[in-house]
Amino acid sequence: MKNTFLALMAFITIDSLGQSGQPPPTTSWPGGDICESIPWKLVFFDEFNGTTLNTNKWYSYSPDQYGTATQVDCRVNPDPTEHQIYLDQNVVVGGGICKLLAIRNNPTFMGVTREYSSGMINTKWDYAFQFGAMETRCKFAGGNGFWPAFWCFGGNGTEIDAAEFFGADPGSIHMGCIHWDGPTNFGMDALVSTSKGADYSSDYHTYRTEWDQNRVRYYIDGVQMGQTDRLILPGVDLSETCDFPALTYQTQRGFPYGSPNKPKIISNLAIGHGSLPYYTELEAMITGIPVADYVPTNSNEVDIDYIRLYQRTPQAGFTDLCANTVTGPFDICNSKAITYTFNGPGDISPVWTLSPNLTLLSSTAHTVTVSANSLTPANASITANYTNSGYPCPQTTASLQVRIGAAASPPITVAPPYPACLGNIVSCSVASIPETYSWSYVPVGPPATAGGLNLTPSGSNCLIEVNSVGNYQLQIWATNTCGMSAGPSKVALSASSTSPKCAMLKRSIAETEKDQNSLLVWPNPANDKIIVSLDESYTVTIFNALGEKLNTVRSRQQSEMDVSTYSSGIYFVIIETATNIYNKKIVVNHN
Fold first, then answer.
1. 30 and 246 in contact (C-beta within 8 Å)?
2. What is the average pLDDT score of the chain?
3. Contact 276, 153 (CB under 8 A)
4. What one-character DSSP code corresponds to residue 141?
5. Are residues 125 and 250 in the same domain?
6. Judging by DSSP bridges, how do beta strands 420-421 and 412-415 pair with one another?
7. Residue 22 maps to a domain
8. Residue 136: what pLDDT?
9. What is the structure's pLDDT at 294?
């Protein structure tokens, strides 16, 4: 191990350093793409542009269960080889920088005295997360005995070290996954030691860790320095592979799942010989400096430019902070004033731009009121232009497409015209900008009534559920908020309980009441893609309303399926696991 750590490694992963002697755990993978391609979305950030620490986001200590510091170990590591007490006054914000200060001043907290006071920031409970990309730009403290770090920790469950820095070895950054498998079973896995030969304490660098469900990647200044894979085939390098075949794999000991205790982001400056005897020996081994010679200087600091957290799909409690939108009526029916709203952070005030067929009447910080120049049927747009002052977001505009008036008789599309499966749903839609329509239908052929049908309006779409076997002929109308009607459109439906095309859908519908608490299928309605998330291996298949199979994907936990080429309408998403089968109905709407 000594030779491994002394090497200057540009890209390496070391598997299973801890828990030696135990047989490696295994799992069966059904085959498929393990790489996640959904773009990252900003869900948390602090650019430290104020003059004090934002205590709505951060603790300056390790909180107890009540969020307070009423116990000694909230500010003092019980390991006597750490020489600091974390105090609020050692976190200083100003000039766009958060400073974590280490000062040799012999502080005392709750009867415990240490040689140094120091600084720590720790996200509050609201910002605990599972899976994401955490990133900081900072300058670490150098010098013997200083041990700054940027990491996340979830109590008795998950720790990911995005960057640890031994001050006596300024040319190396240490990254990796550390897993607590119970209070007495500490195992460290996949430690990555990197070096560019530079002094990481002499300037700012960007440190980023991307934590997905099957892979963790580590970056310095945008360059990938290492990764940890959950699935392992001994003797086979899978680090550049996304398409994993259906096999039984070893699983990385300690791979972070972030459950049941979701981790929080921490940045701190420890002082001493390391917080564990293991690190005392490790640091001396890496640097060649005897343990007894680790004597810190009188003061030092970590300078943090920013800390950000991204998620591919914002989880409960988080939102896409860069997803600014404009909302308001889709239909402009007359020359009266209509107000539209910019949905974005409260401190962003946009400048409004309108298409030439609209007139701006008034505006406030987040709203604009407009009217149509004429009622000639046409498309129009309302756009909010803004600068992301204080927000690290690339977008600078948000736009809404609207409709002035309406075509006299826009066509109604019904899919499928025939046949329909018992219990299935057929869709009807108006080909236009999404509008809110009132839908109605009447039976025009046998049977004289349509008691076996159920029509549900859904904006510019309607859903017709076939509840009884039979043949149906209908006329369907749609009326928008301007009072303009579309239709009528005539449709024939034939519902059969024995059609072979219905067999798969019948089977799934019969199982649809099974427990689906852990299953997510979104967005719905969808435009270009749907995402399926389920915490086990599964096969997902998309059927159209005719019962025809369109696409099948095998996955585990999360998959993404392209629906951009599908016609607008109703589709069935069938998810099969080893024990359950689920049926979800989704709407694809490209309007």
1. yes
2. 76
3. no
4. P
5. yes
6. unpaired
7. no
8. 98
9. 47
Q: What percent of the chain has pLDDT over 90?
A: 26
Q: For position 47, which CATH number holds?
A: 2.60.120.200
Q: Which residues of 328-341 are buried (b: 16+ CB within 10 A; e: fewer)?
A: bbbbbbeeeebebb
Q: How far apart are CA 401 and CA 354, in angstroms?
A: 10
Q: Which residues contact 341 (CB under 8 A, 6 or more apart)?
A: 326, 327, 328, 366, 367
Please compute the mean of the pLDDT values over residues 441-448 and round it to a whole number. 62
What's the token pair of residue 168?
Answer: 């006596």
Domain-located, residue 81:
yes
Distance CA 439, CA 425 (A): 16
* Domain identity same for 378 and 429: no
pLDDT digits (tens, 9 = 90+) for 463-507: 666 666 666 677 777 777 776 666 666 666 666 555 554 554 444
Bridge partners, 237 (sequence order)? none
The tens digit of pLDDT for each residue in 48-79 reads 999 999 999 999 999 987 788 889 999 998 87
Q: Which domain covers residue 549, as residue numbers? A: 512-588
384 and 420 share one domain: no
In this prediction, residue 546 has a pLDDT band, given cuts at 50, 70 and 90, of: low
E strands, 320-364, where?
Answer: 325-327, 331-332, 338-343, 351-354, 358-363
Contact yes or no for 354/363 (Cβ under 8 A): no
Based on the fold, state whether residues 93 and 55 are members of the same structural domain: yes
Under 8 Å between Cβ of 471 and 492: yes
- Confirm if 207 and 139 have CB atoms less than 8 A apart: no
Is residue 453 classed exposed, middle or buried when 0-12, 13-18 and 19+ CB atoms within 10 A define those classes?
Answer: buried
Q: Above 60 in pLDDT, residue 221?
A: yes
| CATH code where residue 561 lies | 2.60.40.3080
Which alpha helices (H) appear in 434-570, and where do they start and end? 503-510
Residue 101's pLDDT is 94
What is the pTM for the complete model shown? 0.69
Q: What is the pLDDT of residues 87-98, one digit of tens each?
A: 999 999 999 999
Burial of residue 162, with CB atoms counted within 10 A of its CB: 0-12 exposed, 13-18 middle, 19 or more buried: buried
- 249 class by beta-carbon count within 10 Å (0-12 exposed, 13-18 middle, 19+ buried): buried
* Cis before 525 (ω within 30): yes
Reading the block at residue 401, the tokens are 């497409």
Here the tokens at position 175 are: 């990254």
Q: Which of 267, 271, 347 is nearest to 58 (CA)?
A: 267
- Binned at pLDDT 50, 70 and 90, residue 16 comes out as very low
- Cα 234 from Cα 227, distance rounded (Å): 16
How many domains does the chain contain in total?
A: 4
Give the per-residue pLDDT at 297. 61
User: Facing residues of 272 across strands?
Assistant: 82
Select the more confidently predicted residue: 546 or 62.
62
Residue 558 has pLDDT above 90, yes or no: no
> Of the candidates 354, 356, 346, which has an alpha carbon nearest to the alpha carbon of residue 382?
354
